[in-house]
Amino acid sequence: MAGAALGHAISEGNAAFVEGVSGVAVGVFGYLGAKHMFTGIDHVLYLVGVVFYLRRLRDVLLYVTLFTAGHSLTLLVGVLAEWRMDAHLVDAVIGLSVVYKAFENVGGFARGPKPALAGVSGGSVAIGERSFAPDPRLAVFAFGLCHGMGLATRVQELQLSPEGLLVNLVSFNVGVEIGQLLALAAVVAVLAWWRRQAVFERSALAVNLALMTAGFVLFQTQIVGYFLAGEGG
Q1: How many other CB atoms are found less than 10 A from the CB of residue 138?
Q2: In 59-208, which ranges are E strands?
Q3: Does the pLDDT value for residue 6 go beyond 60?
């Protein structure tokens, strides 16, 4: 139950409701997608990490667009092509995506000494000299694919009517995007205010370490859920 709450699981009530829908239901699936975005803790935490050091709106739009393209692709194709993956393992990787981004934010991929936070480079803190870190834009797109597959595995658990499925999936995805934009607007506004406070530079490291810890908890929860599900089967 805890793993479901922390991952992408759809509540039993919502599942029963949408499974009773036949044909195109844009409003129903759009609402479900938006609501699901706000209850997907791992999704929100990753986005917080992505925008944490992005000060320019065009950078926020670029990274969010890459993430959106990735998770939209695997959500739609994953369901329609019936790609089957274990939901716990996919959500475990999503937990690691939170760890990865927070680790990147604190200069974990940099070479050499790591002095105090120095600025922003490619969406992450520029500390020391970069060595083996992948392009952060490619990483965001790749993790977007993982997050979309997480959504797809949960949608696949539903007994949905094939009638109007494509339109309903697109509506669900649009709902996710609307929820994502609302959540991001709040996060970006808070960060914009926080960066103007003297405490920001002193607390940024602690916040990213907290994100990293949360990601490890998400990962561990899903791995435990995977093995418990295996024992139950």
Answers
A1: 10
A2: 110-111, 120-121, 124-125, 129-130
A3: no
112, pLDDT greater than 60: no
Give the whole-angstrom CA distance, residue 210 versus residue 212: 5
What average pLDDT does the segment 95-118 reach? 76
Beta strands in 44-160 (DSSP E): 110-111, 120-121, 124-125, 129-130
Whether the CB-CB separation of 136 and 123 falls below 8 Å is answered with yes
Q: Which has more pLDDT, 132 or 114? A: 132
Binned at pLDDT 50, 70 and 90, residue 8 comes out as low
Question: Does residue 117 register a pLDDT over 80?
Answer: no
* Cα gap 136→75, rounded to integer Å: 22
In order of 99, 103, 127, 205, the CA distances from 118 in angstroms are 21, 15, 6, 12
Query: CA–CA separation, 62 vs 46, rounded Å?
Result: 15
Contact (CB, 8 A) for 162 and 25 = no
* Strand ranges for 18-117 from DSSP E: 110-111
pLDDT at 185 over 70: yes
For residue 199, what is the DSSP state? Answer: T
The whole-angstrom separation of Cα 49 and Cα 44 is: 9
